[in-house]
Design a protein that fits this description.
single chain; mainly alpha; 10 helices
């Protein structure tokens, strides 16, 4: 696996394209590897840059005892923000990949039934999708064009579209090719399974919606409702007692 990843990296399709002239990447690379804890260069550089900016702004925006607290708070926020932003981007990317996956599988099945090879089917399907899943499939096609085996191209797809559904699809496609079963039928079955799982997840989220909206209702609407309905009654009653 490590040898395959090195070959993937050699053709430049192991990950999203990143500007190597970025100041944050340059800063991140200056940190020793033993202190990185697996954090990417650009994320680590952004953490250092924003933490330093937060410390500077916090130290200049207040005086006296508040200076240390402001600098610590803003520095901590700057240090954590790149991770939060990266996590949100990863979730958004995963949702986009999952939304495009069933249609992509249907297109693969249609191309396979039309007589296209697996590589050509991947190429035609990737041309139709402009999102992150299409980018991942185009990188897989590029890996095939560079002479990598099909398993390595599947590894590229898993690296770029790193969600459990894609890994399960890749495992099923590998098994279908190894056993000689129909790629078209396998892709159609996978598309149906992904849609059913997505529908079941949406129904589960819908059932949990009342619990999630309970706190906003209690914290925001009930106090306002009490001020508009109960408070006037209490005020009138107190005035009547005093008179």
């Amino acid at each position: 696996m490590m040898r395959v990843r090195k070959r993937i990296a050699a053709v430049g399709v192991a990950g999203p394209a990143v500007s190597r002239s970025s100041i944050t990447i340059w800063v991140g690379r200056r940190i020793p590897r033993r202190l990185r804890r697996g954090i990417a260069d650009d994320v680590l550089g952004s953490k250092i840059f924003l933490a330093g900016a937060g410390l500077f702004v916090g130290s200049r925006s207040s005086h006296g005892a508040k200076t240390l607290a402001s600098a610590a708070i803003l520095g901590g926020v700057g240090w954590r923000w790149p991770e939060i932003r990266e996590r949100r981007r990863s979730r958004a990317r995963a949702r986009a990949v999952l939304a495009s996956l069933p249609d992509m599988l249907d297109l693969l099945a249609a191309c396979a039934r039309a007589g296209s090879s697996v590589g050509r089917a991947f190429e035609l399907a990737a041309e139709r999708d402009k999102g992150p899943l299409g980018d991942a499939m185009r990188d897989a096609v590029r890996a095939l064009a560079h002479g990598l085996p099909r398993d390595a191209a599947y590894d590229v797809l898993c690296e770029r579209a790193d969600i459990p559904e894609v890994r399960r699809v890749v495992s099923a496609l590998k098994r279908a090719e190894r056993l000689g079963t129909s790629i078209a039928d396998t892709a159609s079955d996978l598309a149906r399974d992904v849609r059913e799982e997505r529908r079941a997840r949406a129904e589960e989220d819908a059932r949990g919606a009342p619990v999630r909206v309970l706190f906003p209702v209690v914290a925001c609407f009930l106090p306002a409702f009490g001020l508009l309905t109960v408070a006037p009654v209490i005020i009138v009653a107190l005035r009547s007692f005093r008179s």
